[in-house]
């Protein structure tokens, strides 16, 4: 597979980054993951908006222009013949001798790679998934998409121990988000509920696209906090991310949601979002 490192396209085994890279030493870096369908990037503008915002919040300069990033993503997709899958990119603050403080003149590193992955009509999309609940032990700036992901690595591991592939995280009784996804529940009276964006969650790009599309189709949306107890009593539940699109959730911490099968509103949201994604892909 061909990967990208600071302006060069190289075979994966030849890719090199310094052991003094601050992403490696301090988690001092930002990443983004965009989906690819039919060889085209989905919601990529939203991902690049968020990339720019994350970098700005940490005072890391954009390593190259936004247009150059898109061109690079497209080159990787073409070279690796990605029909369906993901493009991962990471910007680190740069490499210099280890020191908590950093030089203001440091040059950021940009690396990227692709992953082939089936994104549509997976078993998870058809049947729904079970999720576990874990404590949200992350720092207070989760709105910045940093590579400091150890809490999520552990959360996924805990989820796996109870036969789940995703964990929903809980803070002060309220669900914040999934380890790598945004969470939604549907109330008994048919409202789609999701937590408002704030510093305690990552503002999901798929979340934004789904909320826009749902509003355009006159689905009822409520942005507010909700507890784990409310989630157990939900009529339906689902999660979103660039890599999982809209995935029904049929069990939360051993509590069956609705009748234990993906519900009609979730199906509608799946369909609306997929149509939108396929439209982008055809554009
Ligand atoms: N929340 C967290 C913590 C994530 O890591 C992710 C994606 O990886 C999401 C939410 C979903 O964001 P997006 O829809 O932009 O992929």
From TrEMBL:
InterPro entries: Aminotrans_IV, Aminotransferase-like, BCAT-like_C, BCAT-like_N, Class-IV_PLP-Dep_Aminotrnsfr. GO terms for cellular component: cytosol. Pathway: Amino-acid biosynthesis; L-valine biosynthesis; L-valine from pyruvate: step 4/4; Amino-acid biosynthesis; L-isoleucine biosynthesis; L-isoleucine from 2-oxobutanoate: step 4/4; Amino-acid biosynthesis; L-leucine biosynthesis; L-leucine from 3-methyl-2-oxobutanoate: step 4/4. Its cofactor is pyridoxal 5'-phosphate. It is an enzyme of class 2 (transferase). Gene3D superfamilies: 3.30.470.10, D-amino Acid Aminotransferase, subunit A, domain 2 (3.20.10.10). One of its GO terms (molecular function) is branched-chain-amino-acid transaminase activity. CDD domains: D-AAT_like (cd01558). Its EC number is 2.6.1.42. Keywords: Amino-acid biosynthesis, Branched-chain amino acid biosynthesis, Pyridoxal phosphate. The keyword Amino-acid biosynthesis applies. It catalyses: L-leucine + 2-oxoglutarate = 4-methyl-2-oxopentanoate + L-glutamate; L-valine + 2-oxoglutarate = 3-methyl-2-oxobutanoate + L-glutamate; L-isoleucine + 2-oxoglutarate = (S)-3-methyl-2-oxopentanoate + L-glutamate. Belongs to the class-IV pyridoxal-phosphate-dependent aminotransferase family. NCBIfam families: PRK06680.1 (NF005209). Acts on leucine, isoleucine and valine. This is Probable branched-chain-amino-acid aminotransferase.
């Amino acid at each position: 597979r061909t990967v990208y490192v600071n302006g060069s396209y190289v075979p994966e085994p030849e890719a090199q980054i310094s052991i003094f890279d601050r992403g490696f030493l301090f988690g001092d870096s930002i990443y983004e993951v965009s989906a690819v369908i039919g060889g085209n990037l989905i919601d990529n503008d939203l991902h690049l908006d968020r990339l720019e915002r994350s970098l700005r919040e940490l005072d890391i300069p954009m390593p190259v222009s936004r247009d150059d990033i898109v061109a690079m993503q497209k080159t990787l997709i073409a070279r690796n013949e990605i029909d369906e899958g993901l493009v991962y990119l990471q910007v680190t603050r740069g490499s210099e001798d280890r020191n908590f403080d950093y030089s203001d003149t440091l040059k950021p590193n940009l690396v990227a790679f692709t992953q082939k992955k089936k994104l549509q009509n997976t078993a998870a999309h058809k049947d729904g998934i079970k999720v576990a609940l874990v404590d949200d032990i992350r720092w207070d700036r989760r709105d910045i998409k940093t590579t400091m992901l150890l809490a999520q690595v552990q959360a996924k591991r805990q989820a796996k121990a109870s036969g789940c592939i995703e964990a929903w995280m809980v803070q002060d009784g309220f669900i914040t988000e999934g380890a790598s996804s945004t969470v939604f529940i549907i109330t008994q009276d048919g409202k789609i509920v999701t937590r408002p964006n704030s510093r305690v969650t990552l503002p999901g790009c798929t979340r934004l696209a789904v909320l826009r599309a749902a509003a355009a189709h006159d689905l009822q949306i409520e942005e507010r906090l909700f507890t784990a107890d409310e989630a157990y009593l939900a009529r339906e539940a689902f999660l979103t991310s660039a890599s999982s699109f809209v995935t029904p959730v049929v069990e939360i911490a051993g509590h069956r949601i609705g009748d234990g099968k993906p519900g009609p509103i979730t199906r509608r949201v799946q369909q609306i979002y997929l149509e939108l994604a396929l439209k982008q892909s055809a554009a």
